[in-house]
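Run folding on both entries below.
>entry_1
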Amino acid sequence: VQLQASGGGLVQAGGSLRLSCAASGFTLGYYAIGWFRQAPGKEREGVSCISDSGSSTYYADSVKGRFTISRDNAKNTGYLQMNSLTPEDTAVYYCAAGGPHVCRTGIQSEYVDYWGQGTQVTVSS
């Protein structure tokens, strides 16, 4: 069972990145997907989540209107499209999968079953 996050990198402010979260060993379509990030010296925070069907999504206020979460259950993969990036978005980004409560009333890390390894996103000014 594994979640593989990828797509991070170095980008200038105003740029875009697309993160991917590929699952192996289990059917991602049965799980809600969450994206979290942790910047140096800061606590981990929820960025966005999407329900198993894709019908519900949540975004942190800091990324609303700039980030878009999506999923392709046929490919067992989730995505986070990040546009208009700012230096404040610099962090290690983690994808996660869990039961419906991960994304029922917000982005809830306590209900995560699987964590992926992080992918570094660095936004230069």
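>entry_2
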Amino acid sequence: QVQLVESGGGLVQAGDSLRLSCAASGRTFNSYAMGWFRQAPGKEREFVAAISWSGGNTGYADSVKGRFTISRDNAKNTVTLQMNSLKPEDTAVYYCARGPMYTYSYNPYNYGDWGQGTQVTVSS
């Protein structure tokens, strides 16, 4: 099992930036893909971004492509989501999750360990 703790959420204005971090401990972190998901009130949890075990491959939801960047530091057991040009529709609780070994997935059912989430609120 991998324990995950997110940080960096907050209240910002449209157009601002935020940087979310996810600290991992436990299992061999650097063997697993990692992902970020989000859930807004009354909506399903949705895929945001993911990164392969080595960091060499990344994937993004169309709604965040070009604005968000996912990265990882396997030496520090951390995954980061840099969010730029934030919009009110980005408002949600953001979750870090441990994915399959090596290759990432867009499907939340392929993620086995989840953090507690961090709130991001973007005002217009």
